[in-house]
Design goal:
Length: 146
């Protein structure tokens, strides 16, 4: 999670699955692609989590709030969280575009650029499980046609 410069330190998460570059997936056979994650606490009020396509390459080692990569302003999808449990964000159009752009030099959308997830509900404290804990790790669920 990457914090920003506000006093509260709101965070965002940058997500990419570089293995998708190596897999033989036909973009036309993708029915759906969802980023599935777990909210690990009950919330007093509904909170909205949005995903945005990242349009600039980034590095997980040195990306900070002051050098965040550019991203689209329009969200891919919005999840409304309230209770502890699993939620999903649909990234189907973006994933199809990323797969189609494999091997192209500097496409706007690619596996390397990925997507960013951020909570934009003010006065909220959301706890999302990460892959670091090993429990309830977020995952990418892809459904393909036969």
């Amino acid at each position: 999670m990457l914090g920003d410069s506000t006093q509260k330190g709101e965070g965002c998460v940058y997500v990419r699955y570089e293995t998708l570059d190596k897999l033989d997936i036909d973009a036309d056979k993708i029915i759906s692609a969802k980023w599935v994650f777990r909210n690990i606490s009950d919330l007093k009020n509904e909170v909205k989590i949005s995903a945005y396509a990242v349009t600039e390459d980034w590095c997980s080692i040195n990306t900070r709030w002051f050098n965040q990569p550019l991203h689209d302003e329009t969200p891919l999808d919005i999840a409304k969280l309230s209770k502890c449990g699993d939620y999903e964000i649909d990234i189907t159009p973006l994933l199809k575009e990323m797969i189609k752009n494999r091997g192209e030099e500097n496409p706007k959308y690619s596996v390397r650029k990925s997507f960013m997830v951020k909570c934009y509900t003010s006065d909220s404290r959301v706890l999302l499980s990460s892959s670091n804990s090993g429990l309830f790790s977020p995952l990418l669920e892809i459904t393909l046609t036969k």
